[in-house]
Amino acid sequence: MQTHFTPEQLTDPGTARANEILRACVHCGFCTATCPTYQVLGDELDSPRGRIYLIKDMLENNRKPDEKTVKHIDRCLSCLACMTTCPSGVHYMHLVDHARAYIEENYDRPWSDRALRWVLARILPYPNRFRLALLGAKITRPFARFLPDPRLRAMIAMAPKIIPPVSRNDDPQTFPAQGKKMRVALMTGCAQKALNTDINDATIRLLTRLGAEVVVAEGAGCCGALTHHMGKENESHAAAAKNIRAWVREMDKGLDAIVINTSGCGTTVKDYGHMFRNDPLAEDAARVSAIAMDVSEVLMKLDLPMGTSKETKVAYHAACSLQHGQQIKTYPKELLKKAGYTVLEPADSHLCCGSAGTYNLMQPEISGQLKTRKVDTLEALSPDIIAAGNIGCMMQIGSATDVPIVHTVELLDWATGGPKPPALDSAGKSDIKVPILR
Q1: Which one of 4, 92, 338, 355 has the fewest CB atoms closer than 10 angstroms to its CB?
Q2: With bands split at pLDDT 50, 70 and 90, how would you rate the model's confidence at 139?
């Protein structure tokens, strides 16, 4: 794609990176075939190619974003299926992230949008605040139908029936390994600590059982993804900087990996090197990104025991941030099969479930259509369990199906001697059998 940025414009690092990305695009349109919003809405401007044209025009002309451009950029899920499909290597993620930051700085949103985004940015990344908000949502739920804004109704519907108690495993500490093979830092996250404490608990049990000493670093917290995808760069970079400093302190003591069990966070942490490329923290950020791993990547390095039972059917949902953002497509399925589960994969597994961070709260109608499509393909497999590697996907899919949904690590923990995932009992699936280990 031909671009016409001035030399002065290209002195800005974000614009220079956008120019590189735009010039790689050859207008082929392959991205439209795998874009969920284009499939749902059928509008070229709701495809990656259409958004690229809008972003190019906006940035080249230093134009104040208009309502039309903002609407179509906001509708992007950042599922990154387009990056998996693109034959030209267009790094759409960096382009749309820069466009969102530009919009955040230059566009005057309606007051209701500003208020909603302000609330989300100041609640979701903070577990204690989020817990209070979830409690408020539960109390308000009977009156939700009277709320005029569908986004507020979606926020209230998000609250789980049971808000789990705080897990002290998320506090800064070290968990010793059985026959130590490596030392890793576990990112405990933010929203996940309020929504589902079973995931981190299972991750710690599983890793230490297989030989990994697990450290929860003092000072680490939200990865910054939630605010990053809203274009709030100052807030997202501040959160990321805290993590970088916390993990570098542990790296200086010897660290083999930073383990992340929420794939949306993993995609962002692995991009810290790019985010901080022009920052004094650049070197440390690159060090952190270099050893950041999804939990499935670490488990592939450890000796997971073989299981023999083939009775439990698990439908595996591939989170977009894992399969497209991190290009990890086979590891979770291989691990589940090795543990003895029968793994099933739904049709159109490359398509997003509609969760996408805060997307299901800010674009509930489109998100709902994608959720229905995803749940239909999963339930068509008649599984005993649905497994996923991202809390957002689990909440999204779990809100529309009676099939119990758990994190992949919970099933692997159960298969290797850990407790049965609580979600299986609460869903009335007490007859599901654990694989027998050899």
Answers
A1: 4
A2: confident
